[in-house]
Amino acid sequence: MESTIVVHWLKQLTEPDTEKVKQATKQLQSLSLTNDFLLQLFHILRSEQNEQIRILASVLLRRKLSKSSTTISKDIHETLKHLLLEQIQIETNQRIRKSLFELIGTIAKQDLQHEINEKIKKKLKKQHKIEITGWKEYLHLCGTLVQSTDLKQLELGMYLFATLATYCGRFVLEHWPHTFNLISTMLKTRPSIIVCEQALIILTNLVKVLQQKQYVQTIVDLIPIANETIQYLFVNLKAENTTNLLDFYEALLDCEVPNVIGTHLQSIISTCLQVALRDDNTILESVRYNALSILAEICRQKKKTLLKHQTILPPIIQALLQIISSANIDTNNISDDGNDDDNDEPVVVAGANHVLEAMSYHLSPEKFVPLVISQIEPLLKSNVANERKAAYYVLSGIIDGCCDYINNNYLEPFMTALKIGLQDVNSDVSSAALLALGETCAVLEGEISKYSVEILPILMELMVKSENMQNHNLKVIRIYYAVEELIGVLNDEHKNSIHDVLRVLFHVHSSTTNTKVRELVLAVYPAIAIVMKDKFAPYLDTVITQLSPNLSQKPNTETLPVFCTSLNTLASLCRAVGTDHCKTILLQALEFSLNLYSEIDEPEFRSAIFALGGAASRVLKNEFNTTHISKIMGYIFESLRSLDWIEDAAATENRKLEWVDEEEIDSTSHIEVKADEEEEEEGDNDDDELADEGMTIENAHVEEKAAAIEALGDIVENCIVAVWSYLKDIIEHIKNMLEFPNLQCSQNAVTAAGNLLISIHKMTTQTQITNEKQLVQDESDRLLTDLIPNLCTIINTSTSRSLAQIALDTIKNILEEVKLDMLKHITLLEKIAHCVQKVLAYKTKCQQENDDENDENAGGDSREQDGRDDAEYDAMLISTGGDLLPILTSIACTGKVQFFPGYLSSIIPKLQKRLRHQASVSDRSFVIGVLAETVQNMNETLITPYLQSLFTMFYQYLLDEDEEVRTNACFGMGVLCIVANQQLLGQYETILNRLSQVLIKETNLRMIDNICSCLCRMIVVSPKHVPLEQVLPVLFQHLPIREDFAEANSIFTCLNLLYEHYFTQIEPYLPKSIEMAALLIDDERVLPNAIPVIREFLRSIYTKHSVAFIQVMQTLNEPLRISITKHLQIN
């Protein structure tokens, strides 16, 4: 075959004519089946004058070698190897040299794998030790060249050695002593920039495959000189050639073997900071971002080291402030895509924010936040606008991960600073303050509401400014974001201001001509509706009037965003306000949008429809039209099956050489070509399909999938009967999405799995038909067996704490629904229990830290800690895990599950260990609260081993300075007395003295309610051991309960007992008792299980002391008399 024929068809591939490309593809496919095709390609690569054709030939040659190596004859294979080694020594074109190195690496890897496979077979037969030699000629050439005194020869040898390390890293690592000497010598002597680069590449690739501790120390010894070399190369290389210099640090952080970084963490941080701070043309923004990404990863992995050596943190924070203050963030403009987010900020600012977030998520707030505040305070008062701006960016970056600590320790100065920033004369500073305010309100609640009195007027003034009504920019986006989030934290005392906000929103919507600003207005309404609920109804007509024009005609490209926003707004309004107020427009919008589904191929549109469908299922439930459900389910399944989220990166790059491969060049490979041929065959990652095929995630399509699985979760929760026929598909898609490589999708899938299990179990109690009930029960049992292990796997293996937390919450919801039916699945119950145990022991994947400070203790026992250095997200996961303990205890105790006593013996001490000296308020509240609820569900036998330690704990914390901790301790003491029965009678005097001591100065109503309930529980256990003459006057002085209505049951259980057996003592208090019962029996805050107890109390008095009862009744108002009469008539 003449090489000119191949050249002809290769040239035709570069032409813009699609038909010619198809023809050339077909011809090349045919030619690829001939024996000498590979040699012809190599001949073209070596001798053709046209550089594009040479590159194309090299691409096809490498793809053919990669995908069809087993079909290539040994002679051709050996010939190619010989020719490649010849050509690499004489080639001068740098792009072709790169292609040749890739070809050599591909063959070297294949030869090595083939040799290993063959020798493994022989070993199995003869038990000989395997010795791998590799491509001998290649290795010999490398060895010769790296010893050459000729610089060009040496550089070529280092290139070849680096190629070998990239493709055959483990093989090179087996010859570590020689390799170490080579790398060390080259990094120390620095014969040339190229030699240094290649030596660093060799070292980086060897660290990537490092799995044995025997090489760790020598690599650690190389880190200082490698670090110096990286700094040297940053100075001497052109900016475009520095993109991979920091890969060495990434490899160290990703290394499977611990202690690789050793004591050199601070020098690595220093280099990264130097790179990130270089704001000039000598370095690319992407490289600065990469340096910041490495710093963020260090914060995730090395938190103990950072906290132990606190001199490391201040320079990082200072550098981040400097980066942000020096960046040009134009908040008065927005990118052409018009997205309503902060993606318009410079990439280095985004990188700095990632570092801040990583620090706030992974470092102890007690140690981290004061450091940040100390550096921010001077900047907030600075005369330089950029410094003030940087301070607010930092505040917005740390609030999510440290919200509890800031709320408890810095709320007043924090909110004062934000208020000042909102009014800053510099637009960029006020924009940064708006962002910080929005982020703060998104994560805080409670006392922050009171600051709305001063802040909301400022925001409303900003909304009505003419420039903010007519322009859509980053600052305007942040104004509405801040309003939306601040509305969400308003408590009842401050909700009246919402009416003024609505008037401003209505004014802006009617006054502006900017569609984007109207879109922002519409997006605020759902937050208001969620807070106001039914009270939003009077404003609904106005909002619907604003929405209707957007939903009455098919959107075009320009109007599609506002159409989608209107659908999302309507969906949220329906969830918040309910069916009666918006049913008509909901059905109209649903019908209209579903009919447009096949006409508008945009993921944002599909996401909005899914949101509306999910909302419709919530408000319509059984009234949901089956035709609409059928359509929505079909679209959801279609979206979840779609591969549109995978984008072929090669197809979207700017290329001089493009061609469409309708058919494959050979029967086993799909050819993709890039002009610059910048793909790299990762040495040991060929199994990674996404990397191998150049796949990336398209955000809009991923968001569509997240919306689809969320809607599916809503529908199975509210319309399970209507979608029963889809059950098999529903389960399949939920399970698939549990493993989807996107956090929001996985989180929504976990929630959907929980909704499905709970809905199906509810059906077992709702159907009265025996056959149907058994069918549903069988399905419920099967799903428990199928899905619970998946959720447990997520908890144990997910790297995301938030995903593990949602999985724990979901399991808790399932257990609270299924309850004793779990006793049919003891294995599952034990699996859940051990998940909780692993969480509390810091042994799940997302709790692991690759920190040298942890590695001194084998097995990671140092992570079984007291929570002292926990980040807030760590504490949240521990708290969520602990919250499962009460329901687990309830089920296990009822069923007398065998594994549970031993299980508790490890869990209770582990929780008590967190009550260390100076434990945080949140830790104290969590441990006392969880153990109190757990005790409530225990029995007398189970409580005995822990009785003394629990008594001491509750007794001690009755005096805690925090009211929530005191309340939890008081509740715990009460339930401990009940469960322990007679075992604590000897401590009653001690308990009563402590309660009396507390009550004298207690002002918190919830705590007072719990003191009352604790006294009542003690009386129920043994009235003889409670001095009723002294206790009852105090008890009734503080009744009725005013805040903790869950305690109504214990109080009226006690009153029933006293009425039946100690009438003389209770008689003076009967009028107040009857009045109290009348006030509580129909109060929706009282738990359902208390109602029969209160009713029994009233009925007993009415039956036995009717005269006194009627006298009291006559003193009550008419609604209370009617309520009591109604309950007396209930059988």
From TrEMBL:
The keyword Cytoplasm applies. It is found in: Cytoplasm. Residues 24-106 form the Importin N-terminal domain. One of its GO terms (biological process) is protein import into nucleus. Its main location: cytoplasm. GO terms for molecular function: small GTPase binding. The keyword Transport applies. SMART domains: IBN_N. Residues 667-690 are annotated as: Disordered. It holds the Pfam family TPR_IMB1. Keywords: Cytoplasm, Protein transport, Repeat, Transport. Residues 675-690 have a biased composition (Acidic residues). InterPro entries: ARM-like, ARM-type_fold, IMB1_TNPO1-like_TPR, Importin-beta_N, Importin_beta. PANTHER family: IMPORTIN BETA. This is Importin N-terminal domain-containing protein. It comes from Rotaria sordida. The lineage of its organism: Eukaryota, Metazoa, Spiralia, Gnathifera, Rotifera.
